[in-house]
């Protein structure tokens, strides 16, 4: 809502401070919900329980169309990225693929998604 230039957003009539507060409120609520879901999944509350999920989250978001250079993204695209990454992870678990190779596959998916995003952005800049 604010973008990379808060001054331009303010000049466009957006209340930047109120929007930032709302964004942080929503972020906190979603983070709390994710923490409750994770704690119920592992049946305990550990502060480092989600350690190592960063690659999965970034891969799912980039795969869903979120650009690392900024711009517009859609929630439906992120949901599709999460579903794709979840399916890939589930298939690898069902095939009993070693954890080391699972990280390689996730990294390759992230690399491919970033490269496709770069190609898409290069085409729009030229």
Key phrases:
single chain, 126 residues, mainly alpha, 2 domains, cell membrane, ABC_transp_permease, L-arabinose ABC transporter permease AraH, transmembrane helix
Task: Write up what this structure looks like.
The chain crosses the membrane at residues 21-43, 55-88. GO terms for molecular function: transmembrane transporter activity. It is a multi-pass membrane protein. This is L-arabinose ABC transporter permease AraH. The protein is an all-alpha fold and 126 residues long. It has two domains: 1-49; 52-126, no CATH class. It is built from five helices and no strands. Helix 3 crosses helix 4 and helix 3 runs parallel beside helix 5 (99-125).
Share of β-strand residues: under 5%
Which structural class best describes the helix and strand composition?
Answer: mainly alpha
Radius of gyration: 18 Å
**Domains, number:** 2
Mean pLDDT: 86
Sheet with the most strands?
A: none
The global form is: flat
Main location: membrane
InterPro entries: ABC_transp_permease (IPR001851)
Protein name: L-arabinose ABC transporter permease AraH
Membrane topology: Multi-pass membrane protein
List the helices and strands and how they pair.
Elements: H1 6-11, H2 16-42, H3 54-63, H4 75-94, H5 99-125
Helix pairs in contact: 3-4, 3-5
Compose a concise summary of this entry:
With 126 residues, this protein is mainly α. The chain has helices spanning 6-11, 16-42, 54-63, 75-94, 99-125.
């Amino acid at each position: 809502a604010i973008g990379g230039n808060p001054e331009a957003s303010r000049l466009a009539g957006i209340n930047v401070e109120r929007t930032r507060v709302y964004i942080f409120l929503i972020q906190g609520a979603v983070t709390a919900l994710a923490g409750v879901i994770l704690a119920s999944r592992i049946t305990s509350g550990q502060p480092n329980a989600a350690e190592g999920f960063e690659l999965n989250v970034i891969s799912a978001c980039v795969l869903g169309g979120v650009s690392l250079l900024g711009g517009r993204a859609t929630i439906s695209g992120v949901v599709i990225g999460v579903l794709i990454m979840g399916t890939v992870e589930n298939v690898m678990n069902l095939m009993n693929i070693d954890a080391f190779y699972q990280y390689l596959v996730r990294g390759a998916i992230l690399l491919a998604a970033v490269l496709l995003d770069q190609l898409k952005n290069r085409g729009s800049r030229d």
